[in-house]
Automatic annotation (TrEMBL):
One of its GO terms (cellular component) is cytosol. GO terms for molecular function: uridine phosphorylase activity. It holds the Pfam family PNP_UDP_1. The lineage of its organism: Eukaryota, Amoebozoa, Evosea, Eumycetozoa, Dictyostelia. Residues 40-259 form the Nucleoside phosphorylase domain. SUPFAM superfamilies: Purine and uridine phosphorylases. One of its GO terms (biological process) is uridine catabolic process. InterPro entries: Nucleoside_phosphorylase_d (IPR000845), Nucleoside_phosphorylase_sf (IPR035994). This is Uridine phosphorylase.
Amino acid sequence: MSTDKKIGDVGNIGNANFPVDADGVVYHLGVKKGQLSQRILTVGDYGRAIKLRDHLFDTGKKVVTSEHRGFHIHTGEYKNVPVSIVSIGMGTPMMDFLVREGRYVTEGTMAIVRYGTCGSLRDVPVGTLAIAKECVLIRRNPDHWHADSSNQVKPYDISKAVKGDTEMVEKLTNAFTTEFNGRRQVIQGLNATADSFYSSQGRQDSNFDDHNQELIPSIIQTHPDAATLEMETFQLYHLAERSTVEPIKAAAATIILANRVSNSFLGNDEKAQLELDGGRACLEALISMKL
Ligand code: R1P
């Protein structure tokens, strides 16, 4: 490794199939073995990750932060246990990079918790916390709009459900219930991960012919326990379930930011407090896992 190479720097790549540089640094996350914990708290917003790092990591301990291709990685300790807090931005491809490249640079069983924001399919107060027991994926199918299809192809596909890790989901639910202690509702249900914030979550946008008026009713009809809509959790649960060499224990919690039934949206101050309190619950759940 050259002497001026910093964490987050990626050198020349020697492998097109799984791009890694000569030091073992993975192409998108920009870290190598020893620079990412096997316990990961992942969020979308990089500001949320910095806030959790600054307020929740043990003080007086070494904290290492790196940034590459939109992945911000903060590795420190929570109650003397090494943890990485990673912001990934938005969408399933970013979660795919985190889980695959994160798996490559860690050893042993991993525990990954996502803490995000979401829309609610149930009429619960904004600021309610939701734990995803299982997850489906909603994909827009562009063939529906192709001239050859004459509208015979459905505009959106909804996958079968994939479950989170039973133990990790239970520990996360317990940690949220303890942290919020009746101050906020904590619900469990099915999450739907969508490939768009807009069309594939049933939002109406008169600038495009999205053909999505029936989408939310059809999800609720097929999955009466559907609770939330967001954009990353399915990829985490699916890859965790398909990890072949070492186990990945995955669970996800979200702050209900938007109530899609009543059309209400949570205020910024309440959101900021819930990010911090829920982040603490996520770290408690992560360190309680025996890996
Ligand atoms: C959309 O506004 C984003 O917010 C939600 C969605 O999954 C999507 O990433 O999660 P985060 O708050 O973690 O980014």
